[in-house]
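FORM 7B: Structural annotation worksheet

SECTION A. Query
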Amino acid sequence: MDKFCFSCSAPLNAPGFQSPAENYCTHCADEDGKLRSREEIQEGLAQWFQSWQPDLEEKTALARAEHFMKAMPEWAD
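SECTION B. Predicted structure
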């Protein structure tokens, strides 16, 4: 069964995504396996959205990242 990051949904079994943390990818966990801050992850997701949607404004990308994060187990309200 595939596992996905509880913070961003990245596939944990994909090359380059494994981290020391069991439930977080390398983008969401630091080198010690601790979850990065909500702000860091939101900014990273916003940058990722902009990488494949170059006309997306930063404010909109951050809002979309925030909305996306609410659907993730780690950030669900």
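SECTION C. Observations
The two ends are 26 Å apart (CA to CA). The chain has a mean pLDDT of 94.

SECTION D. Sign-off
Analyst initials: ____
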